[in-house]
Recover the amino acids of this structure.
């Protein structure tokens, strides 16, 4: 059974930080280690203690002075849009028709789907993301490519075929029965196979008829352990179009509620322009609103209202939303999240940012026992971050005096260059190679 001791400055969260000085929400070990055996965390803590537990013969991966954290988690993105990222000059509906629906038609080709899936997984890993929730295209072949690429790397991934039977090109439309049959077959093939988990994925109300919504409802009822994902209230024109197609609904959220799709495993992308009533419905059903800051800014959609979600007791997570989102990096995503909330008059502390990328997103997925932290028994998905990877960051770090400052520097200035190594189920993926230090330099004190 493979064993490894991963040494560095270990940081892992145990609760949501309640303020900048909430040191009880995380565990930090200046000279720490994570003992990994058989793809699981045996324990994490001070190097002196964990090295005794591991024994003298265990391989040591010495990443000092870098930070060792749980692998990052992304709760909403589109794998077929990998090559459509940075498509110029349109808001949501025009952008979909001009760029995205054209790109997604290519995924009927299994060779193309497999090639993009490989690149997609490698992009995630190079940015320190070890688990993500993604939409595939309408083609079952795209789902097979997605999960096959994840399986080859040992990654825990969630995803599913989009179901859409109207308001899309003929080549991207299924039928209600076809969407049901293909989704059911894909669930049977992939859900729970290795680390794969399936998400039933009616794209959004605009591209699904009431008949397809009924089929989605049946799938959710028949497969309660599957996730559900769709889009909600991203753009004002989208809201007007969706509600015109379902005039009996009270509002956009009520469309999904009427078909029994709202539950604690539902991930609703964007959720920008919601009324208090709608957020309260999300709270009552346990559904998760997914904050996609780079996408919301890039497409000119609007600013997510975090404080209203918190006030009304609704759950939320954070995601890149590639390819409307402009980066695979959760670090860059949290940089934009900070700015979006700043414009709202709301604060996002560095500790809250790193909580959201790890344990917070794991809790949103109901997977906190498996991923998102470095507790004993967790999957050994780990990222090593170098806060001095770029010259400008190294220069800034010379005057950083606390862990809080270092995290904010990583969040504000960081990107894939800061990812020194990634471990998936304990296996080193060598995203950027192991950066070893001859001797650890002085690091900032904890906040």
């Amino acid at each position: 059974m493979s064993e490894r001791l991963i040494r560095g400055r270990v940081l892992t969260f145990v609760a949501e930080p309640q303020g900048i000085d909430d040191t009880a929400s995380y565990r930090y070990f200046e000279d720490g280690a994570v003992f990994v055996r058989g793809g699981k965390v045996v324990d994490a803590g001070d190097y002196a203690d964990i090295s005794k537990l591991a024994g003298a013969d265990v391989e040591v991966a010495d990443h000092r002075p870098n930070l060792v954290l749980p692998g990052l988690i992304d709760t909403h993105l589109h794998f077929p849009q990998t090559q459509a990222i940075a498509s110029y000059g349109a808001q949501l509906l025009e952008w979909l028709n001009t760029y995205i629906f054209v790109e997604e038609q290519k995924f009927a080709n299994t060779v193309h789907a497999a090639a993009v899936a490989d690149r997609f997984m490698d992009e995630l890993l190079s940015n320190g993301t070890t688990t993500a929730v993604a939409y595939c295209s309408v083609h079952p072949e795209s789902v097979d490519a997605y999960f096959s690429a994840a399986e080859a790397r040992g990654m825990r991934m969630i995803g599913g075929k989009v179901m859409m039977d109207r308001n899309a090109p003929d080549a991207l439309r299924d039928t209600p029965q076809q969407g049901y049959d293909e989704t059911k077959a894909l669930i049977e093939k992939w859900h729970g196979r290795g680390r794969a988990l399936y998400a039933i994925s009616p794209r959004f109300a605009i591209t699904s008829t009431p008949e397809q919504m009924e089929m989605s409802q049946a799938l959710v009822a028949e497969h309660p352990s599957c996730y559900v994902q769709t889009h909600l209230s991203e753009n004002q024109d989208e809201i007007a179009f969706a509600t015109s197609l379902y005039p009996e609904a009270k509002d956009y959220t009520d469309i999904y509620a009427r078909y029994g799709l709202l539950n604690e495993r539902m991930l609703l992308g964007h959720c920008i322009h919601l009324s208090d009533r709608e957020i309260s419905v999300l709270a009552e059903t346990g559904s998760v609103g997914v904050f996609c800051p780079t996408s919301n800014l890039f497409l000119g959609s609007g600013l997510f209202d975090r404080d209203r979600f918190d006030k009304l007791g609704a759950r939320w997570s954070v995601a890149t939303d590639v390819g409307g989102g402009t980066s695979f990096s959760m670090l860059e995503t949290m940089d934009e999240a900070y700015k979006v909330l700043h414009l709202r008059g709301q604060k996002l502390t560095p500790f809250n940012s790193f909580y959201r990328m790890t344990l917070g997103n794991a809790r949103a997925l109901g997977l906190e026992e498996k991923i998102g932290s470095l507790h004993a028994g967790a999957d050994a998905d780990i990222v090593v971050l170098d806060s001095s990877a770029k010259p400008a960051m190294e220069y800034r770090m010379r005057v950083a005096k606390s862990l809080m400052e270092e995290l904010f520097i990583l969040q504000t200035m960081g990107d894939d260059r800061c990812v020194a190594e990634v471990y998936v189920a304990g296996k080193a993926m060598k995203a950027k190679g192991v950066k070893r230090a001859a001797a650890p330099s002085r690091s900032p004190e904890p906040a």
